[in-house]
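Lab notebook, bench 4. Continuing the backlog of folding jobs that were queued last week. Each job is logged with the same field layout so the records can be merged later without manual cleanup. Today's entry covers Serine/threonine protein phosphatase, a 232-residue chain. Filled in by technician R.K.

JOB TYPE: sequence-to-structure
TARGET: Serine/threonine protein phosphatase
LENGTH: 232
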Amino acid sequence: MINPLAQVVWHSASARGPRSVNADAASGFGEPPVFAVADGIGDSPAAARAARIAVSAAVLTSAGPVDSLLAAQGAVSGDPSSGDCVLVVAVPYAGGYHIGWVGDVRAYAWDGASLRQLTHDHTLAQYFRDRGQDASPQMEHMVTTSVRTAGATRFGLTALRRPAGLLLTTDGVHKRLPPATMAELLRRPSNSARSLVDAALAAGGTDNATALLVECEPRLSEPATEAFAVAA
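JOB STATUS: finished
OUTPUT FIELD FOLLOWS
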């Protein structure tokens, strides 16, 4: 999707893949927009509903990523028919984006040539790797935080100053495509979120796949604030 009314140009794409439902969701809202991508936990309508509710609530809150994540948490927890999800949100400020996340959705900085990962996966596998221990493949899919379960002190927080671009992805993309491959696709003239989603599924993806690409940085009038530290 392209939003022609926003001050920034952005594209999102999502595919169900071989799953029974698409439990991913992506959205952008405002001028300049707040962006969010969510991945429902499981392959069910309840997981899909949680992801949609989470991104809808997150992008309506422009005060900062903590407020956006708390809004998503309140919306999901208050809906008895929704399951759970993981979520990344990017809130613009004068110097770039404030970013918050739970789970294994990711944000990358895109400079037109290469990608730099900004987030740090909240998974059991990452927990063990951070401590110098081996992790089994099954641990890659076990998240240690989620929208329903994470307290505010467990939110991952960071900031990106004056990006050339921003990429948000679910694990159906970034666990199939290494950063070098994603960057190669984005360097092509037809670069788009759709190219990443299609490539992830062509590479044998077995999950939903979603990407949201922001092509230019936000420009606001308020002074820049200090960057957040990334939560472990």
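OBSERVATION: The radius of gyration is 16 Å.
SIGNED: R.K.
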